[in-house]
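Customer escalation, tier 2.

The customer says the design service returned an amino acid string that "doesn't look like it belongs to this structure." They asked us to rerun it and document both sides in this ticket. The original structure tokens are below, unchanged.
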């Protein structure tokens, strides 16, 4: 079996990476969380997604510690800047603090975490400038809806964004109506956060759905591996599930080798239909 890949910022990476939201908060979990991140890389993941917001920097510090024994050149590291720091005056200092916590001299992708009061043109201009310094290799956006993406593309340099990170899973398919078709037309990959819906109201519903369970049995995999395989069925999608368990992390990465059949995808579409009209962007 072959692991699915996605091309972001000119690099081809496995389509399942490692999310770190909620990690780094509990000192008692630190060793287990570091072991899980390292297990994910050993299993074949290359992408680690974090943000200055996660635990007010604690997730970045955790990632920095976890990656010390690994080859930085083989990793694709993503972090994000908060809206209040996404200005010409504050962004570089915010980035420098992230780099210090991450124990690296650059991030491979720096995302504008969500929109705030700073004019989008100013944020884009500063992201472009920081890319020229080498501290970030590429930049993108997060929690952008279709109107945000269209506005971004109309700005000078806006079409240099290399990814948009949004909430996306089988139980939250609003992106399928307009955002994903637009991104496909503009060759802009999606980074899907919370791709198995853990921690939101859909989670238990998805994991106990009879169709999902039947497909899992047919492939001898877990229901969460089915959900991940569904999320990356599009070759322009990178999923970043989070887990503090070595066993679950290994299963997550292995889901990149699972291909659902057209019949199975149709059955999931019937259970969880794609939207027929524009929906509000889901954010958690």
């Amino acid at each position: 079996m072959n692991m699915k890949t996605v091309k972001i910022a000119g690099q081809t990476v496995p389509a399942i990476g490692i999310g770190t939201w909620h990690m780094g908060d509990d000192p008692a979990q630190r060793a287990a969380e570091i072991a899980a991140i390292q297990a994910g890389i050993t299993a074949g993941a290359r992408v680690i997604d974090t943000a200055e917001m996660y635990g007010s920097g604690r997730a970045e510090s955790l990632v920095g510690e976890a990656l010390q024994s690994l080859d930085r050149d083989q990793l694709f590291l993503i972090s994000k800047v908060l809206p209040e720091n996404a200005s010409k005056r504050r962004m570089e200092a915010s980035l420098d603090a992230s780099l210090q916590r991450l124990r690296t001299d650059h991030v491979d992708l720096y995302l504008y975490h969500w929109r705030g009061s700073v004019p989008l043109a100013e944020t884009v201009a500063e992201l472009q400038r920081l890319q020229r310094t080498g501290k970030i290799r590429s930049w993108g956006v997060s929690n952008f809806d279709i109107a945000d993406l269209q506005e971004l593309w109309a700005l000078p340099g806006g079409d240099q964004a290399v990814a948009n990170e949004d909430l996306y899973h089988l139980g939250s398919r609003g992106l399928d109506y307009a955002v994903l078709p637009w991104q496909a037309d503009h060759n802009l990959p999606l980074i899907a956060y919370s791709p198995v819906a853990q921690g939101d109201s859909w989670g238990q519903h998805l994991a106990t759905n009879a169709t999902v369970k039947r497909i899992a049995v047919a492939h001898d995999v877990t229901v969460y591996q089915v959900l991940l395989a569904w999320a990356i069925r599009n070759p322009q999608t990178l999923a970043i599930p989070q887990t503090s368990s070595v066993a679950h992390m290994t299963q997550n990465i292995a889901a990149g080798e699972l291909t659902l059949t057209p019949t199975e995808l149709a059955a999931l579409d019937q259970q969880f239909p794609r939207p027929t009209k524009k929906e509000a962007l889901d954010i958690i």
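Tier 2 assessment: The sequence is consistent with the input. The chain has a mean pLDDT of 95. Residues 80 and 126 are 14 Å apart (CA to CA). Sent an explanation to the customer and offered a walkthrough call.
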